[in-house]
Amino acid sequence: MKRIFIWINLLLLPATAVRAQEKRYAMVIHGGAGTILQKNMTPEKEAAYKAALTLALQTGYNLLKSGHSSLDAVEAAVKMLEDNPLFNAGKGSVFTHDGRNEMDAAIMNGKTLQAGAVAGVTNIKNPVSAARAVMEKSEHVLLTGPGAEQFAKEAGLEIVDPAYFRTEERWKQLQEALHDDSIKATQAHALNDKLGIRNRDYKFGTVGAVALDHAGNLAAATSTGGMTDKKYGRVGDSPIIGAGTYANNNTVAVSCTGWGEFYIRNVVAYDLSAQMEYKGLGVAAAGQSVIRKVGTLGGDGGLIALDKQGHMAMPFNTEGMYRGAITQDGKIEVYIYK
């Protein structure tokens, strides 16, 4: 009897542990990764970030709960973040070297593998909605610049004066970046690096969302103002399907944030899905693997991922990442620091 009793408990304990880990999520969002230190954050600003993330999660979840698709949910959540000047997407996007706001966005349907994206747009109030219009109302995947803007206008999306996107904080960040450019020209930045003086993340701030709806369909959306002080029409990973955004019902939905060039070179979003499909990794292990590869090449950032069972991962290799998730029963979790 004693042996049977011990054997039964060994069976029960792992089952209990498994059940404790089986938390299922309906949506995960991010608002950018970088050098986010609590010592540099005021209580008021921290509360504002958490409130914004919470509102975006609740907005998307309410749609899911009422039977809307994961596509509707990720678009709505990202629009909330685009409309909030705290984040580098939509209003509050960073400035290019020439003092413009040029935005990129993408969305993907995990059920059909349809995708849409825009890049380098300057007057579309919600670039993520333009990306969805490209997916659903055109035969293309990626439209750029004036052509994307013309398409968005013809699709009935809200067009605004480019001045709408400007914020004083982002303008000051551009001036700091331009100043750093002049320092680099004199090679003085080497001393600053040694002293640890330079601690600005001009490449971070993307927003994104991934969701799983009641029909079991996954979707992902990403939106960004790109990199402060970017030149020559630079486009990052966000609007590139498989690099910064990807969704596949067979595996996972992914939205990335960080130094886009490294995400493009590593095809991060698709690689995460491929590691799950071909190597049999879970979403957490695959997420850590791709972020580790980005770091090995010298890139920084993070990502959010949600698999077809509702398991999520939010790995990053920076000091912090604005991120949050909501479970299938409506419990909200919001985090900023490591």
Automatic annotation (TrEMBL):
Single GO term (MF): hydrolase activity, acting on carbon-nitrogen (but not peptide) bonds, in linear amides
Record keywords, A-Z: Autocatalytic cleavage, Hydrolase, Protease, Signal
Record's protein name: Isoaspartyl peptidase
Top-level taxon of origin: Bacteria
Signal peptide extent: 1-20
Catalytic residues (UniProt): T206 (nucleophile)
Site (Cleavage): G205, T206
PANTHER family found in the cross-reference section: L-ASPARAGINASE, N(4)-(BETA-N-ACETYLGLUCOSAMINYL)-L-ASPARAGINASE
Cross-referenced Gene3D superfamilies: (Glycosyl)asparaginase
Annotated substrate binding sites: R234, V235, G236, D237, T257, G258, W259, G260
GO biological process, one term: proteolysis
Any matching Pfam family: Asparaginase_2
InterPro entries per record: Ntn_hydrolases_N, Peptidase_T2
Keyword Protease found: yes
